[in-house]
């Protein structure tokens, strides 16, 4: 059967947005047009693709199967058409999923310089720590630690090796002392981080004698807000754990002090990653070239 590709684009927008309103806003059409388009697609296929409710839609099993099969090809087609329409300066919408701990990428200069250099590109950055298939979710690229990137992706170094650190305020240290081994952290008030309410708190990982191990600290405060975690530590609320770059300004000013450093060896840092393609779209190539030129791995 012949199916209007615009209806498939519409279905993809609904699946990614989770409701008709979000899809309508993304595509620049009315909510009614989205609803009618999904109905036409379902009628043409003779099967229900979504289950509707007042506030959201949920894909049926058939809808999930369709999404898994069309997401990557449609994104490739969209990029190819956008590339063909571009003359000279790269342009278009570039969607990037970035972990919240990628301080180098999110600090401002990398993004600001890229936008100034490429005024024709609109950059949409989603900060998320949820594991996801960037292709199925409609992203052009992502930024993650190298150890969690799928092996079928192309990865470009954004930083050199990174370290995690354990920190607390001088006031907390003066009152409660400094643990001499990670195993002693269970006796301290700790501030933990989790990516989402349903996820377990992030593990505090260490190494000793070449052997990696983690410590369960039972945080008294757990949050998905990195800024709250930092502010609480600065206020003497306890010991916390995270990427060295996140805490570097506070450490340099003496507002936080590090501990247990001999148990925290460096590891591979952050990478820009994207699907393996023979010819990435011009907007993505522009970001790749920008990363290579302005954030060489050796500077980490």
Write out key terms for the chains shown:
D-Maltodextrin-Binding Protein, domain 2; single chain; 5-stranded mixed β-sheet; 22% strand; 10 helices; 300 residues; alpha/beta; elongated; Arc Repressor Mutant, subunit A
Brief overview:
The protein is of the alpha/beta class and 300 residues long. The chain is 37% helix and 22% strand.
Q: Which assembly state applies to the chains in this document?
A: single chain
The third-level CATH topology of the largest domain is: D-Maltodextrin-Binding Protein, domain 2
How far apart are the termini?
54 Å
Count the beta strands.
14
CATH homolog superfamily of the largest domain: Periplasmic binding protein-like II
Low-confidence stretches: none
Secondary-structure class: alpha/beta
What is the CATH class name of the largest domain?
Answer: Alpha Beta
Number of domains: 3
What is the name of the CATH architecture of the largest domain? 3-Layer(aba) Sandwich
Overall helicity: 25-40%
Number of helices: 10
The radius of gyration is 23 Å
Sheet with the most strands, sense and barrel status: 5 strands, mixed
The overall pLDDT average reads: 86
What series of H and E elements makes up the topology?
HHHEEHEHHEEEEHEEEEHEHEEH
């Amino acid at each position: 059967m012949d199916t209007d590709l615009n209806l498939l684009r519409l279905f993809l927008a609904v699946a990614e947005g989770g409701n008709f309103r979000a899809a309508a806003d993304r595509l620049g059409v009315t909510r009614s047009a989205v609803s009618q388009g999904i109905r036409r697609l379902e009628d043409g296929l003779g099967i229900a693709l979504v289950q509707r409710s007042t506030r959201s839609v949920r894909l049926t099993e058939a809808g999930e199967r369709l999404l898994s099969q069309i997401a990557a090809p449609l994104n490739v087609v969209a990029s190819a058409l956008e590339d063909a329409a571009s003359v000279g300066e790269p342009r278009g919408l570039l969607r990037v999923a970035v972990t919240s701990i990628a301080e180098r990428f999110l600090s401002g200069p990398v993004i600001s310089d890229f936008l100034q250099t490429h005024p024709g590109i609109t950059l949409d950055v989603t900060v998320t720590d949820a594991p996801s298939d960037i292709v199925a979710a409609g992203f052009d690229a992502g930024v993650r630690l190298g150890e969690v990137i799928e092996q079928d992706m192309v990865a470009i170094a954004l930083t050199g090796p990174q370290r995690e650190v354990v920190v607390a305020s001088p006031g907390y240290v003066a009152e409660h002392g400094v643990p001499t081994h990670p195993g002693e952290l269970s006796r301290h008030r700790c501030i933990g981080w989790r990516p989402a309410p349903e996820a377990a708190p992030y593990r505090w990982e260490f190494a000793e004698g070449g052997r990696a191990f983690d410590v369960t600290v039972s945080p008294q405060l757990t949050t998905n807000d990195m800024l709250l975690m930092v502010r609480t530590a600065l206020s003497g609320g306890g010991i916390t754990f995270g990427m060295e770059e996140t805490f570097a300004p506070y450490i340099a000013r003496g507002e936080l002090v590090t501990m247990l450093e001999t148990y925290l060896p460096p590891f591979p840092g952050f990478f820009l990653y994207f699907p393996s393609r023979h010819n990435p779209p011009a907007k993505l190539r522009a970001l790749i070239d920008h990363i290579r030129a302005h954030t060489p791995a050796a500077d980490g």
